[in-house]
């Protein structure tokens, strides 16, 4: 008998054990939904719930498998199975889906405490999983080291906005295929292990908003040369920003703000990373002057240098080279001197914050820039040339502090005021005027 065309063949049925486990998992996510009634079919892969993806590798394969599970509201265009306030995390997730490549939870666990299950991850689950993503699940609590299995295929590890705690274990270096590790907004602490430097495929490393401390290992800069994004902000790192970061030649985003890096000044090697687009160092007492490093950084879009103890003048080169700049934060420093007139070249700027410095002199900007985009409060030495510029600053933080500039003394030009042998001919012209007046007085009989 001839086989029917491939397009008319029935897909292979879902593995029965996976289907049973999926119903248990769906019930744990939202027990208020009658999942069996909504999906009475004997094969969930024929018409699965949103967020459930099955795989049909080839016509010869006799069984379908679940390869993606995504739970939690994402958008109207991707209505994944909604999570109820009393959602729980079923241990079957980590043992029953032996072909799973992606596990995703978004805003599912935000009410009563949910503990990460104390289960042994099945070897097949660990060997196939490529993406493990938990975003904004604040009541999901558990040890970070307890979550890590032998995830030999894991490419994305995203745990942000959860209740994950503990230190990053040394075995993190075994996840050699990781391309993204985002652990932001958790309760992690301790020091960064040097084994993190073995993850040479990393393109994104985000450890922000945790309690990490100690020095940042030099190996991050020496080995993670594929990094596009490095975010260590809002931790308690100390010491010097590693010189090895100059090796991150692909880096586009660098955020080290609000740590305890100090007393070493703005790193000069930043000028050697030409692909940088965003640089944030705010909240570290680095001190010193703003260096002249901007010649190779014409693509920079955003700079955050607030609360850094900076002194001296604002370099004119920032306005000259950074033509694409959209944000510049230099507020709450000890900068002084005039605003560079070259800042008028920043045509695409959305905000320049220069508040609470010791700047002085004329403001070289138009009314539109002053009123909408330029923050100047706390610089009593600054002045503007026109009253309407003062009007634009009303209800702003700088209201009542800017003043009109004194008009410069402009000399009155005197015709014929040329020099002849070093003596102004104006004196000669005045002498002739007095002579003429004397002749008139004589003819008038005075």
Automatic annotation (TrEMBL):
SUPFAM superfamilies from the UniProt entry: L domain-like
Any Pfam family matching the protein: LRR_8
Gene3D superfamilies in the record: Ribonuclease Inhibitor
Listed transmembrane segments: 418-444
InterPro entries, per the entry: Leu-rich_rpt (IPR001611), Leu-rich_rpt_typical-subtyp (IPR003591), LRR-RLK (IPR052592), LRR_dom_sf (IPR032675)
A Gene Ontology term for the protein's cellular component: plasma membrane
Entry's localization field: Cell membrane
Keyword Repeat included in the entry's annotation: yes
UniProt keyword terms in alphabetical order: Cell membrane, Leucine-rich repeat, Membrane, Repeat, Signal, Transmembrane, Transmembrane helix
Name of protein: Piriformospora indica-insensitive protein 2-like
Organism (species): Senna tora
